[in-house]
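From the shared-data thread, chain only:
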Amino acid sequence: MAVSRRKKTVTAKKAVSAGRQGRARDSDVEAKKPGLSRRPLWEGHLRLSLVSCPVALYPATTHTNDISFHLLNPKTNNRIRMIPTDPDTGPVERNDLVKGYELENNRYVVLTPEDLDAVKLETTHTLDIERFVDAGDIDRLYWNDPFFLLPSEDSGIEAYTVIRDAMADAGRIALGRVVMHTRERLMALEARDNGLVAYSLRMADEVIDAKKAFRDIPNKKPDRRMIEIAEKIIAQQEGPFAPAEFTDRYEKALRDLIRSKERGEKLVTAAPPEDTNVIDLMKVLQRSLKGSGKPAAASPARKRSAR
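Structure, as tokens:
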């Protein structure tokens, strides 16, 4: 079932063209729905033992609708150009720059593209499944970015679907490695809907030990009565995960600000809220329980208890 032909097809291209999207204008009332990027981040082969198929990796998230700013000269409103500059000789063409690893202050090892090509691994072109694990065995601290793994040729669809369905039936997460952006990354694959979703996982040396991070927090149990009230507040605020209900209010405020300045309107600045001096945490918890369960009522208590 191994795929050896390199005949290009429109399988991934159709998916990409269907997901094409232009950058949303700041004046748009509603953000556009995100789609697949035009180009994959990585192309190669997915391999399970002797079974392989050509695939392409696309980001599953997008920043297309984010508000971005440019740096301007306030005297001319011209956009500033960032020019690479040598402190001794002045501006340098970006294409002439080389990569260097600093051994010590102002002492570098220069690496050429040929040097970097010499250390390419098999994972540069192949995502080889090495192990299957339960999703619950992977600490959430290690999960990173999500991607869609799509077949890039029609000739590989059969092998792709066999791997997908076998993983779905087994109910396991596949682990493999792939080289992206000059780094080998650990990837977790799971079957979802009609395809495969991949997540980049952080390596062990990228994750800080939680015990060390929390070691200065006193190991003292709070009043059990306050915990019980807090548990009731949690029960009041339980609900389903509905991401559409959690919009970026700060970005919306930025868009409103931009529209107001474009129309020449005078801006009104709201005064910051006064800090509440919470003395009795029990009373705050009781008021929170009697109220509507909004988290704002308990926020001063959290600030005070952290001191």
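The radius of gyration is 26 Å.
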